[in-house]
Amino acid sequence: MELHETRSFLISGIATLLCLCFSLSVKAGERYTDNSVLSKGNWVKIQIEQDGIYKLTYSELKKMGFDDPSKVAVYGYGGWPLEEDFTKPYVDDLPAVPVLRKDDYILFYGRGTTKWEAQIRNENFTHTNNPYSVYGYYFLTDGVEVKVPEQIKYDKTTSERIETFDDYLLHEKELVSINLSGRRLFEKLSQSTQTFNDFGNPETLGIVEGEIYVDCKFVPLTTTSEAQGEITLSFAGNKLYNGNTSLQSGTYTKGKDMELAQKYEYKAGDHLSVKLEYKKSQQPSTDGYVDYIRLNVKRQLKTYNEPYTFFRSFKSRNHISRFVIEGANSACMVMDITDPANCKIIETELTGSTMSFTIPESNSLREFVLIRTDRTDFPVPVSKGAVECRNLHGWSNKDMIIISPSTLRKEAERLKEAHETQDGLRVEVVTPEEIYNEFSSGTPDATAYRRFMKMLYDKAASKEDRPKYLLLFGDGAYDNRFVTESWSKMSDKERENFLLTFQSENSLDEKSYVTDDYFGFLDDASNGKSVESCPVDIGIDRFPIRSVSDARKMVNKVIRYMNNEELGIWKNETCFVADDGSNADKVKKQANDHMKYANGAAQTVEEKAPDVLASRLFFDNYAKDYSSSNSYSVVTDEMNKKLREGLMLINYTGHGNTTSWSDENVLTLPMIDKFSYPKLPLWITATCDFCRFDALATSAGESIFLNEKSGGIALYTTVRVAYGSENDRINNSFLEKLFDQSMYPALGDVVRSVKADNKSLRSKNLNFTFIGDPALKLALPSHKIRINTINGKDAVQNSTNFRAYDEVTVEGEILAPDNSIIDNFNGKLEVKVMDSKIEITTRNNFRNDTAFKYMDYKNLVYKGSTQVQNGKFSFSFYVPGNISYSGKAGKMILYASDSEQKIEAKGNFTNYKVQGTSDDPLDDHEGPEIVKLYLNDSTFVSGDKVNTTPFFYARLWDQTGVDITEGGVGHDVMLMIDNKPFTSYNLNSYYDNIFGRKGEGEVRFGIPQLSAGMHEAVFKVWDVMGNPTTYTFRFEVDESLKPFITNIVATPTPAKGNVEFHLTHNRPESQMKVGIMVYDIAGRLHWKHEETGSSELFKDYVIDWDLRNNSGSHVRPGVYIYRAAISTNNSKEATEAKKMIILW
Hints:
Strand order of the largest sheet: 45-48-53-52-49-54-55
Helix content: 10-25%
Distance between the termini: 58 Å
Number of domains: 7
Largest sheet: 7 strands, mixed, barrel
Protein name: Gingipain domain-containing protein
Keywords: Signal
Organism: Parabacteroides goldsteinii
Domain Gingipain: 400-778
GO molecular function: cysteine-type peptidase activity
Mean pLDDT: 92
Number of helices: 15
């Protein structure tokens, strides 16, 4: 039970703290002080739990480090939630709090975290809890003038005599989030008939006879089936309310608000007891939740057995009023706390034990507190320690702000340095506590983030100096206070790495949201608007990290991406994945909508970025296996293949949830955890709930980002329920702005633009969030590639026919963005030559009215690479016989890189048609030569033992090249094991030409899990001229076969700062358990790290160590022994050890 003494309220109609607020008419930058009071001096932070008069003795103040307690001042404004409407007055920085000083202690009025507001028309009170903190905070300092309450005296005149006051009692237990979304929390009924008796004894409280206003917010759970609910509210044994409600609702509505509010005529002897009786379908039920129960009462104005009593009276409005307090003595005093920054001591008159005072007529409602200075049981604030001087108010002209918990700050600083060095940005790292201290009186509040960013926005010297990016460097929770049953179990250490989230007031249905956009509503034009209608003024992203380890891994990941370590034509590749709909979609005749939207998004990319290949991967193109939970496993395999080859972007449209894509589980959390491809795409997911970063469990979307060495570099994704048509518009808008060829904007700029420009979609955009670094740019080539001639003829003026079996020679050059030739470009060019687009009709697995039709480049004519010298290149290839002969244009995409100069270029060419047959084909009847073929490593011979997931490698040579066209005549690169269809693999896309070796290429493929025992494999390959080669070999699968470590190296050595362990082994692309242990010479273990992952052929498996032991301390310099251990599945463990030197 919470009495009025633990609460205060907002005075309706009065702009409180007027002397501390800044007029909106002044210049934006002048609204703020240039220097925070916290910028100098000695400061101690203190914590309070509820509204009250707080006491600090001189002895306690000395323990806090103050030599002269008589000079201690109090600053702040406590724990009320900050005003979200920026048109209303607010307090900048920290105001001084009036202090009552006695002989050896001080008293001050402090506000807790529940704001009570007077509803003048109804003459009752409502409350709002701070959704971010259970404590309020103030600051102590010395060396400044101490503010004391002003003493006032009012003339005695004929007045309204007031002997009672208006008060409020509250029952509220915040234990459960019904929807796992929104800021409201609830208490579940424990019984179908439940009585609430915790309001206190009416005699002890001095409740007077008369009207009591009983106000209860009740939430019955809804259901998708037809049902009726009945709720009865009784007070003091008398039925006040009985009502019915339909419980049938949509899938995403978890409950319905019911306002149970009635008046009751209280009589002496009545109990302050509320009873709720709930029935569902006429049966007793506990499927309901209580938000709160409030009682508005009148109490006798007298002293109580407590050190202070808050009071106020609606009756005093618009009257000269005389308050009469019984049971008083000379130790009692009255303070007007209507404006807490300007509290006033009111001169009172004491006659016997009756104290009285008069106030003049006023339209406002005044708040008072009766203080009994003879009491010793005042609450005492909790010291939270000294506060380091900081001056965020002195900042201006910053490009990027990183808000990081102090525990993660070191890693945030590394990211800051990377952006300053590589991008020339002005970046600052700030902790949430530093923001709270200057912008919310030290109390956690999401609006403080926004206030801080708005100050930087307003104080900027020019538009170009305004902040552009905000990175929230920490995870979030829908329960910001960690008070619910599920979140409260999290340790304080774990909580340290969380940053606040902005949750909607709506907490019950699909319109509930969490959004980081709120922190970017900075322009004055947003003031006074609803969150759903505000434009975003900066790019805001989040790292959903929960540990130092996560932070380090993600910063390493981003810096690696910024360093552009993975070059290749994958930067010209995108993939658009589409669901085939659900049963509900089929009923609504919407099963094809996802494919329609995904195809439209792919067309947007093709139009905006012609150098990019936008491939389609639609579920309905493939046979469905209804016997498996992953009934589109072939789609999963195809997607994994594309990710392994490399994608700059992957885009999904369809159904989803926090753990998977679609009912068919095409993508799941376990699959994501096993991702090991090194080329990192941007993920865009137009689906539901895929990245609920504020949930207790880590979502699939977060896992993609948090995958240390794979997954994705960033995601534009959904955190709540989203709808198809709106998703489509948002998706297309994002793609249009992402591929703006004139800008190549940072990802945060794209997000800001999408969210700001689409006015009609702003409320829908709230469900989309960006996970990643807002200042990061996609690693897109900035230079151009131009094709000059084909077979010696001008490629632009002459359209060329690519005829079957013809040899084609292409020549071109590398251009700068201004189209000038770069004659010092030396490097590598990669090319894909595509057959013409074909119309594809899906299988119509759902038996819709019509199958879906679309156009796509499906058949590859040639894939290869060549050398670029002095900006020019030439390559030749033979056109295979398995072409479409369509007579329509194909598409060539090109990529080039000069690793020395770190220049990349891209291009496309379409002025050719695929048709006809060569007049003079090469007389070639020899199939490809198999130069080398083995499993796992080159020591393999037919009949050897291998593990359950062996790696297949073949090196091939043919003068005309290997046929990888998939033209439908059976000339595929195939590996067939045991002559069974489910262990037969088409390896066309696994073939790559070897750079600098004409006619030579290689196939690399990780074979899926095989059963133990002997197996026979047949490898078959065709050349472009239609000549096959077949090779048969045998191998034995041994589940216990241990891997082999070929080398382990620590670099650099001697090591200083950090070290990388590079491990090579004979199990490429197999999932392995990898461990690194570091011992001193005496054999004591200092560091141990274990993880599961895989590495590509010819590439090291790399583990990074920051030279800190398992306790977090830096290891001492000296000689150490490092030991590597690897194992796969149920295999035995392989180990290898070496020495290293560590320096300070």
